[in-house]
Specification:
The complex is a heterodimer of chains A (313) and B (287). With 313 residues, chain A is mainly α. In chain A, 77% of the residues lie in helices and 1% in strands. Chain A contains 12 helices and 2 strands. Chain A has helices at residues 2-28, 36-41, 47-57, 63-75, 89-124, 129-142, 146-160, 173-207, 210-217, 222-259, 265-274, 278-306, and strands spanning 81-82, 87-88. Chain A has a two-stranded antiparallel sheet. The longest helix of chain A is centred in the last third of the chain and has 38 residues, at 222-259. By secondary structure, chain B is mostly helical. Chain B has 12 helices and no strands. Chain B has helices at residues 2-7, 13-23, 26-43, 45-48, 81-117, 119-133, 137-148, 152-178, 182-189, 194-230, 242-250, 258-286. Classes of the chains: A mainly alpha (313), B mainly alpha (287). At the A-B interface, α1, α6, α7, α10 and α11 of A face α6, α7, α10 and α12 of B.
């Protein structure tokens, strides 16, 4: 019960942030030099059409009332209309969002697959050869752009070896799964170094605590102490690090989708930018921010569920 | 200079070595050498190549590396790859470094004010930070560049508008600790004007963490700029830029794999150099 109240409180505390996000997105279109209505309709718009849209958007009204209208539309799920795609922005987003979410899930999966064993190995054999190599990886990985990794993976596993498609999302579930592997690994390779670093640090801290010494002295095998006793506790703090970085990484899905021609919202955003499709860019920017907020919420909730010491306030 | 150099051996060998190890560490030295080399190459671009990075020559398009007069070959428009690489370094490094300075200054000052005054000032700034942080860095930068139109000015403004929050958070946290310390209280008690306490007494003590962070931030900013170029939203053509070169090379990856790989390597090596410097500085600061 207390837990449920905590989750509800966290959700309510998001309202000001969500309002702020909508405010920033609202102003985004006002940054454009010139008349927003004229920009939205493009160069071939007639003066009548521009005037009609100006009235529709309420551009003659004060800024605050414009924002309230915008917010009212948002609450009804109305993100505007894309004149370039002749479709509502919401529809464009709902068709492409699942691909992006799949990419995030696959990226997180491969991140854990890479990061957990390496971090455990590094921490268990501290200052050994493996540890030194693993510690050098984040330094190299930090300067590696995601799109470049993607291109290299396409070149090796797509073109040379032919194991995976070089791009696209396919039509069937099997094709989806095959198509999402390389993008997921690309995301993971940029995220894993950061997670390795934090998980290794917290593993080392946990491994030097008293109860681990006790476990050792009871004659429990090293493997069981490391995997059974230490990892569970070290994982708690790494959940937060993973969460923060998934939030950061939602941004680079945009690039990864571009490299692998995945029809997600990132790809849609870039296409809309080239089509000068302002409402869609605006809508997708909003969705990206909401995704970050949701991931952060899930991280907090997961953290408090995993660690009973977290104060539920 | 020479006086210091000759004086050094006078110190007992053991302590001298230890002190020297405290001043320099392997990542920092390696990073500085590598980065210095890259900067030198960029600065000496006109001396290293006589080719024009922008001039097209369609008859000489798609030359392989090692071709006569074109050490690294030419691109799809017959432009010299080496020249574009060197002049591109000038563009990307300049934009990357400059784009970190204004968020550092603005973020530090706002963080200083938020931490010192607390109360509603801190609350308002805190909410603004929460809003900006909710957006993925790259998404908001792209959206802002798009709204303001392409060009380096847009990149500077966009990176500043998004990037200051990290510095604000770091400095605010430092100020909360520092303002309880005796020197800050003494400054306040002596009746100095607030701006003087903040800028002369507090800032030098709290800015170190922000500066350390700015080193790894340069890596991220450089990557963001190259990524913008790759997406076709960066420094407008025909100005050479590594991201644009990679994007152009990717189209010919099947037949001319090195077209995307050469600028890609440049990005990786520069990123590595900066990451090493950042790592070395963090290590030094922790000692």
């Amino acid at each position: 019960m207390r837990y449920l109240v905590y989750v509800l409180k966290r959700v309510v505390s998001l309202i000001p942030v969500l309002l702020g996000i909508s405010f920033i997105v609202f102003f985004l279109i006002r940054l454009i030099p010139g008349d927003p209505a004229a920009t939205l309709l493009g160069v071939h718009a007639t003066p009548e059409a521009i005037k009609e849209l100006r009235d529709q958007m309420g551009l003659e009204k004060p800024l605050l009332s414009q924002y309230l209208t915008f917010l009212g539309h948002l609450l009804q799920g109305n993100l505007g209309y894309s004149y370039v795609y002749s479709s509502s922005v919401l529809e464009l987003i709902t068709t492409s969002l699942p691909v992006t979410i799949w990419l995030l899930v696959s990226g997180t999966f491969f991140t854990l697959l890479i990061a957990v064993p390496l971090a455990v190995l590094a921490a268990a054999r501290r200052n050994g050869v493996a540890d030194n190599i693993i510690r050098a990886v984040p330094v190299v990985g930090l300067g590696l752009p995601a799109f470049l990794l993607g291109i290299v993976l396409i070149l090796v596993f797509g073109l040379k070896l032919g194991w995976f498609p070089v791009g696209g999302y396919g039509l069937s579930l099997a094709e989806h799964l095959r198509g999402i592997v390389l993008p997921g690994v690309t995301v993971a390779l940029t995220l894993a170094p950061i997670v390795i670093r934090s998980l290794r640090a917290s593993m080392i801290e946990v491994l030097s605590s008293d109860y681990i010494v006790t476990a050792h002295s009871k004659g429990i095998s090293t493997a069981r102490v490391v995997l059974g006793h230490a990892l569970r506790n070290a994982a708690v703090s790494s959940v937060t690090v993973l969460g923060v970085n998934i939030a950061y990484l939602t941004g680079s899905t945009l690039v990864v989708e571009r490299v692998f021609s995945l029809p997600g919202i990132g790809q849609q955003m870039i296409n809309s930018i080239f089509g000068r499709d302002f409402p869609t860019v605006q809508g997708i920017t909003l969705v990206f921010a909401i995704m970050v907020v949701v991931v952060n919420l899930l991280t907090d909730v997961a953290h408090s569920a995993l660690d009973p010491r977290v104060q539920l306030t | 200079m020479s006086a210091i150099a000759t004086a050094a051996p006078a110190v007992p060998a053991g302590s001298g070595r230890r002190r020297r190890r405290g001043r320099w560490n392997a990542p920092l030295v390696a990073g500085l050498i590598l980065f210095g080399l890259i900067v030198a190459l960029a600065l000496c671009a006109p001396l290293l190549t006589s080719q024009d990075p922008i001039k097209q020559n369609l008859q000489d398009a798609f030359l392989d590396p090692g071709a006569k007069g074109h050490l690294l070959g030419t691109d799809a428009l017959g432009r010299d790859v080496l020249a574009r690489l060197l002049y591109g370094a000038r563009v990307d490094l300049r934009v990357g470094v400059v784009a970190v300075i204004s968020p550092l200054i603005i973020g530090s000052l706002v963080g200083l004010v938020a931490g010192w005054f607390g109360g509603w000032v801190d609350a308002v700034i805190g909410r603004i930070v929460d809003m900006v942080i909710a957006f993925p860095f790259l998404v908001l930068v792209i959206a802002l560049v798009f709204a303001m139109g392409p060009g380096t000015t847009s990149i500077y403004v966009a990176v500043t508008l998004v990037g200051w929050v990290a510095y604000c958070r770091i400095v605010r946290g430092q100020v909360l600790v520092a303002k309880e310390q005796e020197y800050a209280m003494a400054a306040r008690a002596s009746g100095l004007p607030t701006w003087r306490i903040l800028l002369r007494h507090l800032l030098p003590n709290v800015v170190l963490q922000a500066v350390i962070f700015s080193m790894s931030d340069i890596v991220l900013t450089l990557l963001a700029i190259v990524t913008l170029g790759f997406l076709g939203l960066g420094v407008p053509p025909p100005t050479p830029d590594w991201g644009t070169m990679i994007q152009e090379g990717q189209q010919f990856i099947l037949t001319k794999w090195y077209m995307a790989t050469i600028p890609g390597l440049a990005v990786v090596i520069t990123g590595l150099a900066l990451a090493l410097i950042a790592d070395g500085i963090v290590e030094k600061a922790n000692q």
